[in-house]
Specification:
The protein is about 35% helix and about 20% strand. By secondary structure, the chain is α/β, with parallel strands linked by helices. It has one domain: LigB-like (Protocatechuate 4,5-dioxygenase, Chain B), CATH 3.40.830. The strands form 4 sheets. Strands 4, 5, 6, 9, 10, 11, 12, 15 and 16 form a 9-stranded mixed β-sheet that branches. The chain has a 3-stranded mixed β-sheet with strand order 1-7-8. Strands 2-3 form a two-stranded antiparallel sheet. The two termini are about 35 Å apart. About 45% of the residues are buried. Belongs to the MEMO1 family.
């Protein structure tokens, strides 16, 4: 029985349980009790997309996804996050039995992990790679918090299946979508998808800009063009509004429910959505269920974005920002 330590506690978020618990409570309380006329949690909302930056940046945005999540039938929680440090062409599983948080430990669903291992399509994360990666860890306190609000004791908490998603190409995403589809079809399964959105700035090697005027010669590509360090600061629109438009295009593509639409958007704009691959895997899995007639009804299987914000408002080419978005999908 090995436990993954909360390696980012004390830096990316508070390591003091009382402080962390209060912060999570406060952010969840700031979310309205209903969104677009739908009471929260949204019935049947078993899939969410939420950010994974330091809590001072992304904590308030993530609360919108977690407050939307319907845990009424939850028996297991799949957590898919992108690999930032480990080169990985596919997906990898944790070797640990528990994941620690300052609030308490989350138990790993070893039965489901073994089932996935037996497909032969998953690698195992080393302890070092597991503890270095933040995209999974940043969701653990939120998961523990919402489970503590729903279940009477930690012994009743649904177990966790953490999955690190690498640099998967479209066909590989579709292959993993087929593997996850039966689990996604199970009303007892929850899927949490970890992703930040646009990472803008020279330090991210991404300075794409969308001018307001489509007639501009520099805007011959609908995906915009890259700003150079010595370019004149654009004002129509300001850079931060352009970033918002780039993210809106990505979110709109995700909301279509078409995996190819999302891939096409990324190809066109080169948007630095760091969780593009876990998002793609889950979109591919939903498409499998749709093809099998297991997702029916208006709006079913479609992500609905409920929150969007940025770490700062970029006005100068030398500035940078990261975007955070939260969404849910009803199945």
């Amino acid at each position: 029985m090995t436990t993954r330590v909360a390696s980012h506690a004390g830096s990316w978020y508070s390591s003091r349980a009382s402080t962390l618990s209060s912060e999570l409570d406060e952010w969840l309380a700031q979310v309205p009790t209903s969104i677009d006329g739908k009471e929260l949690p949204v019935p049947g909302a078993r899939v969410i997309i939420a950010p994974h930056a330091g809590y001072s940046y992304s904590g308030p945005a993530a609360a919108w996804a977690y407050k939307s999540l319907d845990l009424s039938n939850a028996k297991r929680i799949f957590l898919l996050g992108p690999s930032h440090a480990l080169y990985l062409p596919g997906c990898a599983l944790s070797k640990h039995s528990k994941y620690a948080t300052p609030l308490g430990d989350l138990i790993i669903d070893k039965v489901t992990v073994k089932e996935l291992q037996e497909t032969g399509e998953f690698e195992n994360m080393s302890t070092g790679a597991d503890e270095t990666e933040h995209s999974l860890e940043m969701h653990l306190p939120y998961i523990y918090k919402i489970l503590s609000q729903k279940f009477k004791s930690a012994a009743e908490y649904p177990p966790l299946i953490p999955i690190l998603v690498g640099n998967t190409d479209p066909s590989v995403e579709r292959d993993y979508g087929k593997i996850f589809a039966p689990y996604l079809a199970d009303p007892k399964s929850i899927f949490v998808v970890s992703s930040d959105f646009c990472h803008w700035g020279s330090r991210f090697q991404y300075t794409r800009y969308l001018p307001a005027s489509p007639s501009s010669a520099a805007a011959s590509s609908p995906g915009g063009y890259d700003l150079k360090r010595h370019d004149k600061k654009p004002t129509n629109p300001p850079i931060y509004e352009s970033i918002g438009r780039l993210d809106k295009m990505a979110m709109d593509a995700i909301e279509t429910g078409k995996h190819d639409n999302f891939l096409g958007n990324l190809e066109e704009t080169k948007n630095t959505v760091c969780g593009r691959h876990p998002i793609g895997v889950v979109m591919a899995a939903i498409e499998v269920l749709e093809s099998e007639g297991k997702v029916t009804g208006e709006g079913k299987g479609r992500f609905k974005f409920v929150r969007y914000q940025r770490s700062s408002e970029v006005e100068d080419i030398s500035d940078s920002s990261v975007s955070y978005a939260s969404a849910y999908a009803v199945l």
